[in-house]
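Data card: per-record layout.
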Amino acid sequence: MKLLTDSLVVLLAVLLVGQAVASAATYLSPTALASTKDGKTLFVACGTANQVLFLSTATRQVSATLTLPKPPSGLTLSPDGTQLFVTCAAPKSDVCIVDLARKKIADTIAVGHSALAPVLSLDGKTLYVCDRFNDAVGIVDLAKKNEVRRIAVNREPVAAALTRDGKFLLVANQIQAGRADVDYVAATVIVIDLAKNQVVKELLMPNGSGSLKDIKISPDGKFAAVTHLIARFNRVAARIERGWMHVNGVTLIDLAALEIRNTALLDDADVGAANPWGVAWTADGSKLVVAHAGTHEISVSDFPMLLEQLPEKPVMCDDSTNAVPDLKELAMRANYLPFLLGSRQRVKLPATDLGPRALVVLGHMAYTANYFSDTVSVVDLDATPLKAESIPLGPQPRKPMTDNQDLVRRGEFYFHDASICYQGWQSCASCHPGGARVDGLNWDLLNDGLENPKNTKSLLWSHRTPPAMFLGVRTNAETAVRSGIKHILFTDQPEAVAVAVDEYLKSLQPLPSPHLVHGKLSKAAQRGKKLFHQAGCADCHVPGIFTDLKAHHVGTNRSFDKSTDKFYTPTLIEVWRTPPYLHDGSAVTIRDVLTTGNPNGQHGDMTGQSKQEIDDLCEYVLSL
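The structure for this 624-residue chain is written out next.
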């Protein structure tokens, strides 16, 4: 009977994986846009179809389709308009150089892990790419056809923009990179001096900033605009209205001073505008346009009026001292950001157009790439009233919310959909960006009492590693999904919504670690693997799923925890992707987990281990 049961489980797993693969093959998932200089052709990168579509803006028809070897993630055009550079994301990414006259791939260049957001130098000789999971910007010499070096930046660079004079590259990092148990926690924008090929500044975003998605330079070169969320993580998550948990904003950077000018909220006081993504200006700089992936709309701001509404500077320390900004003061500032009044219009996309991500403005026309419906939306920014029209990229728009044949895709849509949240302030992806992973923040949820915040856990393999939450307050992931809809999104949804989200989460697969060498453990990691077993780490982190599914007291309790609290062993699969660590987010690195976060040796006794041995152990854990 057990053999039969195991066989059925394996068969079901194969069928589910097959369904997910079939799903990816049948959807286009437009994720990036670029255009010819004359605006006549729009290039649409389709992430799950491994295609770039050539869309005529005059006829609104796809004129050509280019198939790529890997999922396209970003596009940019050569200065002379003859070549299209396409980042194709994978653990070993490529830049595909497309000959536009022949509509064929002329060459490929190997780059880093999950590359995206390509940016060309002004002379067209150098390409900069965000090597997302190498936490670096890759510098590609196009003459040598080689990535010649990498510049380390903060965590998960996902967007970049070149200043008009070509001197600086601004890089938006999606997730914060430090501890989560401090007053100020936020992702950053990095400034790279391209003459020196080094980081010269780190711009501190408003407290709670995360899910940075896009960054663009204004036509006059005076400002950069960055889209992002602002998490109110330092509040008890007891309600959601008026942006109690999340607000959604755009931050302006003064490029002359290379300083944050200020941040404007894109929500209305009673209606959220969840998950801002793409951003662009009109050519005359009069309008700033943002795509809102969670609420399926765009917002169009009168940019001069927006500037008038914002104070000249955010609340910071006295600039005359050249001191580091007071982080407590910086933390407080996020609570006093203004909503835009009168300078912004919100434009709902057609019901067929779902999940707008990338955005470009050509003349007075704004175009969005709609990930979940395989469409492009177009809005005439000079029209009164503003109205969006839909352009199907296939035979017809896709409707994941009614596609009963593909529960995985339905679940992925609902996971990113803020319309199932009260007032549209957030989606599941607001706390679990990047494919249901982590935001790097601590949240004080009500499921285990008050004033005991816990770090966000990745949902990868959550259905395989019950119970859910550090204290196991939800018996399994299914219960946690339903509780999350009710107590974090603050709505009641049909059971079919939760079932679809379950299937999406079950379909997730770990990415290969950037610490692997040609897909295998490095020599240091091989040594660390032996120590992992010798030191008893494998007793709790059992190879396979790397957890024993049990709760333990390992000396990590804080003053706000009960002395009797025990914490369930987390899986180590893809742990390289989920810092900070421990239930309170106090450990920035795995080394911190084993040393400074482990004073009594209850979380693995490192007594007698040399620095090299601990380094080897860390390298193994980070390779899982």
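Known properties of this structure: Residues 1-24, 315-324 have pLDDT under 50 and may be disordered. The first helix runs from residue 2 to 26.

See the next section for split statistics.
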